[in-house]
From TrEMBL:
Keywords: CBS domain. The keyword Cell cycle does not apply. PROSITE patterns: CBS. Residues 1-56 form the CBS domain. It holds the Pfam family CBS. This is CBS domain-containing protein. The keyword Transit peptide does not apply. SUPFAM superfamilies: CBS-domain pair, Nucleotide-diphospho-sugar transferases. It comes from the Bacteria. It comes from Onishia taeanensis.
């Protein structure tokens, strides 16, 4: 059935985002109380809403696409196939005479051609994994193993990260290494992966960005840089399209984080008098995940052999008038293994 794809127009955007994460279709059909189709909602619609300053407490009806393609009962299969191919859509709602959804047609069910509509070219760009840190927050594991080799399910953390890019056609990887680098190299020599691994050797710790100086002049175009303790479940083709469309020098992938304060929050004025009290407020934040898209030209700003974070690079780019944008993803699309609590939460998520 298609009930999991339906959402009332009055539901909150945050609830819709969570529902989108639960369905592999990546689309919701927005309806009114009578079940009539009012629009469609994708993660792209939510992302544009957030970037325009929209509130996650807003209503789905204000965010959705109000002119979706739909079919009527008695449709012709040939018309559906033509419409899906033309509009690059993988599902079509079927409406009765009252405009209510009575069925949803899916491309692979009708034509047994799964994936043929939205087939995308491989991403032809390098991915750099910053893997030189000690991972002291994961001690005592990291007293024995480097952080990239910490097990996450049946694989290591760095394999999980690399595999997410391999699925998009990336085959050119650079690992910036320092702490226990020989163990990392030995692991990949034994693994013998089909993709290329290149190493950037840091003679001393250089932060989350200092090692990138060694790559100046190596690339034209864009590259992706990621920390070695974050696993991002995102559409990297959409990320790169956004980066290009916005003409960003740097695009930072950010995750939505929702926090509930279980107490009344008191605001006071200078004399200690209560100004306002907010009972159990809710807050939404955009949090840096540690994954970035960079224009290769910004690498020229990174000093040689100096401790330098990617956040320093962002500041330097902004001070020179460059464009630094963000690309929001949901909280469930970001798995963090950098601290024990986060590691345990990630493992629980993977087992669920």
């Amino acid at each position: 059935m298609f009930d999991s794809l339906l959402i009332d127009e009055h539901r909150k955007v945050l609830a819709a985002l969570h529902q989108l994460e639960e369905t592999r279709r990546k689309i919701l059909y927005v309806t009114n109380e009578e079940g009539q189709l009012r629009g469609t909602l994708t993660d792209g619609d939510v992302r544009r809403w957030i970037l325009s300053g929209g509130d996650l407490e807003g209503q789905v009806g204000d965010v959705c696409n109000h002119i979706p393609y739909s079919a009527r009962e008695g449709y012709r299969i040939a018309d559906i196939e033509n419409a899906m191919s033309t509009h690059k859509i993988t599902s079509v709602p079927v409406l009765d005479d009252d405009g209510c959804i009575v069925d949803v047609l899916f491309w692979e069910d009708l034509f047994h051609k799964e994936g043929s509509i939205k087939k995308q070219a491989p991403l032809a760009l390098p991915v750099v994994v910053m893997a030189g840190g000690k991972g002291s927050r994961l001690a005592p594991f990291t007293s024995v193993l480097p952080k990239p080799l910490i097990p996450v399910g049946e694989k290591t953390a760095i394999e999980m990260i690399i595999d997410s890019f391999v699925q998009c056609g990336v085959d050119d990887f650079y690992l910036s290494v320092n702490y226990k680098s020989k163990l990392i190299q030995a692991y990949f020599e034994e693994l013998e992966p089909a993709y290329r691994i290149n190493y950037i050797h840091e003679e001393k710790p250089l932060g989350t960005g200092g090692g990138l100086h060694a790559l100046i002049g190596r690339f034209d175009g864009d590259l992706i840089v990621t920390n070695c303790d974050v696993i991002i479940k995102a559409d990297y083709h959409a990320l790169m399209a956004h980066h290009s469309l916005e003409n960003n020098d740097i695009t930072m992938v950010v995750s939505l984080r929702h926090y509930d304060i279980p107490y009344g929050i008191c605001d006071i004025v200078d004399n200690g008098q209560l100004c306002e009290m907010r009972e159990k407020p809710h807050y939404n934040f955009l949090v840096n995940t540690g994954l970035y898209v960079l224009k290769s030209s910004v690498l020229n700003l990174i000093p040689e052999n100096q401790f330098y974070h990617l956040t320093d690079l962002i500041q330097d780019v902004k001070e020179r008038g460059g464009r630094v944008g963000v690309y929001p993803i949901s909280d469930k699309a970001w798995l963090d293994t950098g601290e024990w609590q986060q590691y345990c939460e990630t493992m629980a998520q993977l087992r669920a």
